[in-house]
Every structure is written in structure tokens, then in C-alpha cells.
Fold this protein.
Amino acid sequence: MTDTDLAARRATAAGGTVQGDPWDSPYGRIATVQDPLGATFRVIRSAENPLDDPERAVAGSGGNQAIG
């Protein structure tokens, strides 16, 4: 993913919805999207490497997490 905001706009144009505005996290820019059938997923443009910067790293995080 190279442009999270563009992906969110395209999802909306295709009949989906964006849940809140895209946001920046230590791991990259993220948007939560719901497709027209109700499936919710996230798109992310990854940060270069958040673990290179200890101020941005979050202890114990990593891997995929389910959306609740």
C-alpha cells in the first residue's frame, strides 16, 4: 500500500465506507474500511521500520490482530 488515504477514497467510491478518518500510528498510516457486504478490514501504508526508533516502538506488539 502506498497511499492509505487514496485507498480509503477508492473504497468509498466502490460502495464501501470508511470508519473514521485514516490515522497515523507508529506502524504506519491506517484506515478501517467496510465493504458493501459488511466485511471490515484495514489498509495500511507501513512505516519504514518503527522498531528502529525506540521512542515509537510498542513493547509486546506485533503480528496480526483481529478487528473486533
Observations:
- Strands lie at 17-18, 23-25, 28-34, 40-46.
- The chain has a mean pLDDT of 81.
